[in-house]
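Peptidase M48 domain-containing protein
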Amino acid sequence: MWALAAVGLAALGLAASVWRPLAPAVPATTGQLATFGDGVLTAVAAYRAPRYVVSAIATVLGIAVPLGFVATRWGRERVRVWAGDAAGPWRAGLVALRLSILGSLAVLPLAVYSGVLHEGRWGFRTRSVPGWLLDWGVRAGSRWLGIAVLVVLLFAVVRRWPDSWPFRATVGGTLLVAGAVLLHPVVVQPWTLPSVPLAAGPAADAMADVLDRAGDPPVDVRVGEASRRTTRVNALVTGLGPTQRVVVYDNLLELPPAQVASVFAHELAHQEHADLTRGVALSGAALLTALVLLRFVLSSRRLQRAAGADAPGDGRMVAVVLLAAAVLELVGTPIGNAVSRRAEAAADARAVELTRDPALLLSTTRVFTVRDLASPTPPRWVRLLHGTHPTVTERITYLEGWAEREGIELPTLAELERAEEDQHHPAVSDAPPREPGGARP
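Tokens:
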């Protein structure tokens, strides 16, 4: 029964991901309007290059730390000492807590450099250093606690149901994901992104026009106090059912109301497409795949002997579990990002249908590069590991094709650049544009 339920959940998630609204095909274009000046591209490259290095090192450390406790004699001895002879689920959770703390401390210098020094130097961080460290501690502590609890539950299930635990854990894990998404706006977000109802004004009026064209769906729109921590512009959909809401950053309201409404249209599209619900359903397929693979790993007599464990549910196998989870996350991330980009492209397409103004969305998309220094075309490995959205170049090219299909005239590149001059990041210097397909910071 549990196997049938788990497979059914996985099939439902895959179906929800495959049969979903997609971005309609549009004519291919040259992407001329995705061209940026040398000043912009130089600033983007200077800002992004150190972040790419930090990301690469952090990715390696994410594998290296648990690997050190599996592949070295010293590491295995530490785990055995920490787990003790009983090595039950609770002891496994405590070992997981310790290993998680060590993993976070290993990358803390990178986080401080990137989040405090680099972001501060480029003017994106508004949080004080003590405040940033407090935020890091809260996020890290929540992660440590979450990992410890999940490890306790995992080992308890493995010991209690040695034959059917992957299927039971898939069902239970999917329900946990649904509960987490449901409660996030009312339990977590008040601490991480406090928000207030959207006040009346030009931005609210522009959003109301979008809602009217969408058929006036019920939407809870709130303004997140992101300026406490960053100068970046953004918006997001969060929650499920009764807790679902659209949160726009207060920084976003600094843009013209029409551009704010274009970003809102994109988030409204996510709600229309039930993307968070689809994501929860797809987590069932991801969990089933990961847990079945983990079962093979835990059943390895060679790994059990190396860890000094007596069975798959022995708490001394916890480092093996964390290493397997890190590897599965690394392998699965490009797949998850590809699914995410598909959903984001569909939301872009719906947003331009709602606004009927590709020029507006095009100018808003360019803001992410000229203001927030998003790379128009990031390196392939960055796209694989971090590319949850289509690139700026891809989004602009799609809008060009949509406008061509609909017979809508777009502004020239020179007109776009003149209009966005007051939105440039301070590090951007005036320079003539490069030819399309030039530098790729």
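The two ends are 52 Å apart (CA to CA).
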